[in-house]
Amino acid sequence: MSLTPIGGRLFDGSGRKITTASLREQKLRHESITCLTAYDYASARLVDEAGIDMVLVGDSLAQTMLGYENTLSVTMDEMLHHVKAVRRGVKNALLVADMPYGSYQIDAKTAISNAARFVKEGGAEVVKIEGGEKRAELIRQIIDAEIPVAGHIGLTPQSVNVMGGYKVQGKSLGGIEQLMRDAVALDHAGVACLYLEGIPREVAAMITAEVDTPTIGIGAGPECDGQVLVFHDILNLTFGPPAKFVRRYGDAAALITNAVQAFRADVRSHQYPSDEESYHLPKETKAGLDTVLARKRAMRR
Ligand code: KIV
Fold this sequence. Notes:
By secondary structure, this protein is of the alpha/beta class. The protein has one domain (6-255): TIM Barrel, CATH 3.20.20.60. The protein has twelve helices and ten strands. The chain has an eight-stranded parallel β-barrel with strand order 3-4-5-6-7-8-9-10, surrounded by seven helices. α2 (41-49) packs across α4, α6 runs parallel beside α8 (173-189) and α8 (173-189) packs parallel to α9 (201-210). Bound molecules: 3-methyl-2-oxobutanoic acid (KIV). Residues 37, 56, 58-60, 98, 195, 197, 218, 228, 230 line the site of 3-methyl-2-oxobutanoic acid.
């Protein structure tokens, strides 16, 4: 068996290391691709070990992890900090890093150098860029620099101010035409996968049938080649009403609140820590200490 070392990970043909090539095979086999966001070591490990195909360090961490109002404020350095942590937790999944607002809009040189930082310093395997046909040339240049790119079209949160809010895209005939042009342009540019966010199911189905690139939907219906959701959304960690497309698979907020309240109550009532949860002196030291204390007490009398 030949072993090819890739970034410290081994492709031995038997494992399930996901690559940009294996994503395309999944599309051809009609095997749904799974993707979740993760932003730190612990969540990355859990997501990877559960067998999810792709881990996205999304700029949604601006809201979920950093408490910003939208994704526009998060910086390259903040994103990189999280990408590095996630890298340490992910073995098999394909690791995608989101290029934050301002990191690729200025010029191609800056965009390539920021994308390269995610690969070189962060260990990302793919970088994600929002925008359709107007980004196709830039995406070509980043791919020319040996960096795989994921496209992201439809409701692109970095354009919130231009869109006038978080609105489902592609609802008019003109909107559908634009989305089709966007998808085809990115397909031809050679993106590794295409995130479709906030678009009607019928339009996502047309795009998925039209392009060779695997499509990953979020609020884009079931016909996409795969689905992505935000880790905090599926676990009720977002402190607000979920979007229509979110399905909650657990209530981590309740779990954490119960655990924290129980800890507080135990400390207040001296139930924590117990003797079993305490360290003890070795027998001989304890005996010696008892003798010293007894002597001191006797001298005080
Ligand atoms: O930042 C993010 O989490 C994303 C996904 C919602 C696709 O871009």
